[in-house]
Amino acid sequence: MNMMTGKLSKQNVTPLSETVWMLGQPALDDYLSFVKNQTIHGAQISRRELIDEWRIANDHFYDLEVSEAGIADQIDTFGLGKSLAPLAAEIAADLRFKHAFDTVPVCVEMVELDKLIVSQLHIDITHSARSGAKLGAGADPAALLRFCQPLDRDEAPFTVRRTGKNRYTFWSPSSDFRFHEATLLDSGQLPQDGNLRPNSGVLGLMVGYSSNFLSVIRSDKRLLIHNGHHRAYALRALGYTHAPCIVQTVTRLDELGLVASGNVVESPALYFKSARPPLLKDFFNPKFRKVFQLPSIRRMVELSFEVREYEVAD
């Protein structure tokens, strides 16, 4: 407290963000855990109240399985057009694009937003609105393509500290911050600062951000958002009906396992076979939409390693 004014000082105010949750979709346990453990005052909300509102939304989804059966198979798509071909070629030539989309057939298409299938059931609408404000409503096709498939972008800052003998911790305000992979390096890939010994073996543990392209997965006639839920939500909130998406096409379950997230691979029938899967437009339906306040959080990635030395016979 500020003793002079009796008001909260800015230093003591916890930044808040708002998240919208899509009620009525599996799993109920995830929803209850999210409200209790992550939202402001969520632990004070009656479990019965939460379950009742989730059940009502779930019943409405059941009704839509009849009234909107097959709607996901009717999604509208079309090509980018000749005027965007040079920019599309520039995106396809980007090293991040080549690294991220080297598995199954891929193209770039304009995709209807409302009928995109979603596997992520909550959206940080504070972050989404901040992202959408950079584009605004009524942008020209080239600006829209750059927004959805950014090549030049300012990554969120991160910090790193050594938190143990063999442990390092990285922090970032971006939820896109993650561990990538471990890779072997040679001495020629590192600065020659005199610290390397002759014939050194170097192991790199890479932490950073994803390629961050707005991408979807196509199976038969359906399209599911793979990456870019927040941008898709932002575009829909701004009034856009279609967005340029990178489309990866899979034709069998084994291919889906190579490109999709874990929850999609675990329940492919929910997204690609059910009569009426969860869609992007459902986030804007008052019967499903529930907004919560959350404290702003940082993403933490902790890396630790273990060293063992042995003597073994050849």
List the topology elements:
Blueprint: E1 16-22, H1 28-38, H2 47-67, E2 77-78, H3 85-93, H4 95-100, E3 106-112, E4 122-124, H5 125-133, H6 141-148, E5 159-164, E6 167-172, E7 178-185, E8 202-208, E9 215-219, E10 222-227, H7 229-238, E11 242-249, H8 253-259, H9 262-266, H10 268-272, E12 289-295, E13 299-304
Parallel strand pairs: 9-11
Antiparallel strand pairs: 1-4, 1-12, 2-3, 3-11, 5-6, 6-13, 7-8, 9-10
Helix pairs in contact: 5-7
Number of strands: 13
Say what oligomer this is: single chain
Share of helix, binned: 25-40%
pLDDT averaged over residues:
88
Shape field:
globular
Q: In words, what does this structure look like?
A:
Helices cover 29% and strands 25% of the residues. Mean pLDDT is 88; it is low at 1-13. A hairpin with a 2-residue loop joins strand 5 and strand 6 (167-172). With 314 residues, the protein is α+β, with helices and mostly antiparallel strands. The protein is globular. Helix 5 (125-133) crosses helix 7 (229-238). Strands 2-3-11-9-10 form a five-stranded mixed beta sheet. It has ten helices and 13 strands.
List keywords for this structure.
10 helices; alpha+beta; 314 residues; 13 strands; three-stranded antiparallel beta sheet; single chain
